[in-house]
Write a structure and sequence with these properties.
CATH architecture of one domain: Alpha-Beta Barrel
Keywords: Dioxygenase, Flavoprotein, FMN, Oxidoreductase
InterPro entries: Aldolase_TIM, NMO
GO molecular function: dioxygenase activity; nitronate monooxygenase activity
Pfam families: NMO (PF03060)
Helix content: 40-55%
Number of helices: 16
Distance between the termini: 22 Å
Protein name: 2-nitropropane dioxygenase
Strand order of the largest sheet: 1-2-3-4-5-6-8-9
Length: about 400
């Protein structure tokens, strides 16, 4: 399961794990993978706290940070707008619609002691840059960017500090742009993935991206949560995998119990690409909330970052009241998640998940080697190949 990315990053297995929970990131890194903290939901001050915590808990193992510096968003052509200026662009009709949906599902406001989710966060290049500035003050090994090509000066500064730059793409054309920008690793994100995705499936996308950016290494993402899927990704030319949804179902995620149970009960058919979260298509759990925004009564999602700003308080209210008697907030409650959610059936510690990935990967490779593509089993040659021994060196 080792590839050149293991040598590049100093990890044992080429499994990159995206999570907003620092406990998950640290546990993956300590277990031999590469934990990657999603910075989007943190202010620069909060991100500093999270990274200081990680520095103290990864036990010297490598970890990374993921930011969002979108190429296209509301106000981008003017260099970005202030939060106050953006708030003025949100129509009152959209605000009323949010309250109507919440009232329909009996979701009250937040008590005074509970703070609402910060509504702007990193949904702009300026905010992303501030998070990069914080991240580069820590001993991270990679900085990843989604929804666009990272600015060249950001790439150069990361390289100057010995940090690898990773970019997420949904098409081969986007991958070529990333290569031209000087990124070190490209993540081919298939439509099966959770969060922002394109329309091309992982099986088709990965080899297209591999061919487009050779010799830059590629990570496969989307629909990967089993060892056999990692084996398939490497067979397609990827040199590792980028995973996210898989880690929602681990002990260290400390997920809202209502949301956790919904994810564990979901099938691979229970996700939808919806603009309800950020204004851009993002795969998430299908809920009454996504249906409300995708239905005929909806005024239509707003462009990024206005949609997230519009709904941030509502989402906080859903999480807070999901288990409250007399509220139907649980019907609205959801999460970005990929189609691999259908394979999440129990809550396990991170280390157990990584161990199962490795074990199933080995079994899958051995099974292919034993049949030799002919359907006939050749167990001796398979074991030699799997252990790295050759006939002439036995």
């Amino acid at each position: 399961m080792r590839t050149r990315l293991c040598e590049l990053f100093g990890i044992d297995v080429p499994v990159f794990a995206f999570s907003y929970r620092r406990e998950v990131v640290a546990a993956v890194s300590r277990a031999g993978g590469m934990g990657v903290l999603g910075a989007l939901q943190f202010s620069p001050e909060q991100l500093e706290e999270e990274l200081c915590w990680l520095d103290a808990h990864v036990e010297g193992r490598p970890y990374g940070v993921d930011v969002v510096m979108p190429t296209r968003y509301e106000g981008a052509e003017r260099g970005g707008l202030s939060k106050d200026a953006l708030e003025l662009l949100i129509p009152e009709g959209h605000r009323r619609y949010v309250e109507e949906v919440l009232a329909r599902y009996e979701v009250p406001g937040l008590p005074p002691e509970v703070l609402s989710h910060e509504s702007l966060l990193g949904w702009s290049e300026a905010a992303g840059r501030s998070q990069v500035a914080v991240a580069l003050q820590h001993p991270i090994r990679l900085i990843a960017n989604a929804l666009g090509t990272p600015p060249r000066d950001v790439v150069d500064e990361a390289h100057r500090r010995g940090v690898q730059v990773v970019a997420l793409v949904g098409t081969a054309a986007h991958a070529r742009k990333q290569a031209e920008a000087g990124v070190d690793v490209v993540v081919a994100v298939g439509t099966e993935a959770g969060g922002h995705t394109g329309e091309i499936g992982t099986m088709v996308l990965v080899p297209e991206v591999v061919d487009a950016v050779h010799p830059i290494p590629v990570l496969a993402a989307g629909g990967i949560g089993r060892g056999r899927q990692i084996a398939a990704a490497l067979a397609l030319g990827a040199e590792g995998v980028w995973t996210g949804s898989l880690w929602l179902g681990v002990e260290e995620a400390h997920l809202n119990p209502v949301l956790r149970d919904k994810l564990l009960a979901a099938t691979s058919s229970d996700t939808v690409r919806s603009r309800s979260m950020s204004g851009k298509p993002a795969r998430q759990l299908k809920t009454a909330w996504t249906e409300a925004w995708d239905g005929a009564e909806s005024p239509g999602p707003l462009p990024m970052p206005l949609q997230f700003m519009l709904t941030a308080d509502a989402v906080t209210r859903m999480h807070h009241h999901a288990g409250t008697a007399g509220s139907r907030a649980h019907e609205l409650l959801g999460s970005p998640v990929g189609q691999i959610v259908g394979s999440l059936r129990e809550v396990r510690p991170v280390r157990a998940v990584l161990e199962s990935l490795e074990a199933e990967f080995r079994e899958s490779v051995l099974r292919v080697l034993e049949t030799g593509g002919t359907g006939e089993h050749h167990p001796d040659s398979a074991r030699r190949a799997a252990t790295g021994t050759r006939r002439g060196s036995e």
